Amino acid sequence: MRIANLVLSTLFAALLLAVPAARAADPIVIKYSHVVADNTPKGQAALKFKELAEARLPGKVKVEVFPNSQLFDDDKVLEAMLLGDVHLAAPALSKFEKYTPQLQLFDLPFLFADMDAVDRFQQSAAGQKLLKSMEKKGLTGLGYIHNGMKQISAHNPLRVPADASGKKFRVMQSDVLLAQFAALDATAVKKPFSEVFTLLQTKAIDGQENTYSNMYSQKFFEVQPYITESNHGLLDYMVVASTEFWTGLPADVRTTLEAALNEANAYGNKIAAELNEGDKQKIIASGRSQVLTLTPEERAQWVEVMKPVWKKFENEIGKDLIEAAAASNTRS
Ligand code: SIN
């Protein structure tokens, strides 16, 4: 009897010890860091990814989205990713120059006529190949998210390139963007997105270039009385993960996450134009900033001054790639 009791209690203790092991494994935590507000195309795409991924992999995956540079500024996030401190990010295409010269393509002024052309190029074989351009550096591109075309805001009205002469602008981390402002006889400084509002407010800089959704959500329009609707350049994003993290995921989880990400990015792309137009109207309605529409003659002057920048970067980016992107302006 005593022996039977001993066996029973040993079995019971073993069962108790086994319980935690029998519980479902802890979910894979995916930290998704970005620098913009939730109510922007990228912010919405990130939240949509969380919704889809957690619904399709219940208990297996937990997505934590950190907007507004809460976790990392864009100039730090890729280093953090390679150290495993963050798992997904979607920096602007202008912010990869340390990792590949090819993505500078997207910064060339007046390269794309509109967002349909951007879409055609990003979905083409050449555009998809760029997602793999940083594999040697340990980063895998997982897709593109649109924001839209950039406009130039300033303390003074900029109608023609000469109005920008001698002024100081903030740009993202891109030598092409520095060259673009140098072509205007202006200076530019590379600064993180999180610092732009204060730089403008304190008048440490005269202006900056961005989309309406960023200018509205970060309140740049409150400290910049003029916005020139130049549509001179693109602000789009690449969603990236460290290759080590992404390929280390269980295959079934990775496939489900890829599908969720594609859907979430497509959702962000679908609402991007509408969000930017809505934010433009809110800026106009605020009366804090005046949107300047250029005449065709005025716009032609910006094109003439800025477009020679292409030539300077032709070797670094690749002539073929530039031609392929420019060709996307005509529908095949
Ligand atoms: C972003 O849209 O992610 C930031 C853009 C910027 O740095 O101006």
Give an account of the 3D structure.
Belongs to the bacterial solute-binding protein 7 family. Keywords: Signal, Transport. By secondary structure, the chain is an alpha/beta fold. 42% of the residues are buried. It is globular. The chain has one domain: D-Maltodextrin-Binding Protein, domain 2, CATH 3.40.190.170. It has helices at residues 2-22, 41-56, 77-82, 115-123, 125-129, 175-182, 196-201, 212-217, 243-248, 251-286, 296-306, 309-317, 319-327, and strands at 28-33, 61-66, 88-89, 139-154, 168-171, 187-190, 207-210, 226-242, 290-293. The longest helix is centred in the last third of the chain and has 36 residues, at 251-286. The chain is 45% helix and 19% strand. A six-stranded mixed β-sheet has the order 6-5-7-4-8-9, with helices on both faces. A three-stranded parallel β-sheet has the order 2-1-3. Bound molecules: succinic acid (SIN). Succinic acid is lined by residues 35-36, 92, 147, 172, 193, 210, 214, 235. Residues 35-36, 92, 147, 172, 193, 210, 214, 235 line the site of succinic acid (SIN).
Short description:
Helices cover 45% and strands 19% of the residues. The chain has 332 residues and is of the alpha/beta class. It has a single domain (2-325), classed as 3-Layer(aba) Sandwich (D-Maltodextrin-Binding Protein, domain 2).
Helical coverage, percent range: 40-55%
CATH topology: D-Maltodextrin-Binding Protein, domain 2
* Strand fraction: 15-25%
Number of domains: 1
Assigned CATH class: Alpha Beta
Ligand identities: succinic acid
State the CATH superfamily name: Bacterial extracellular solute-binding protein, family 7
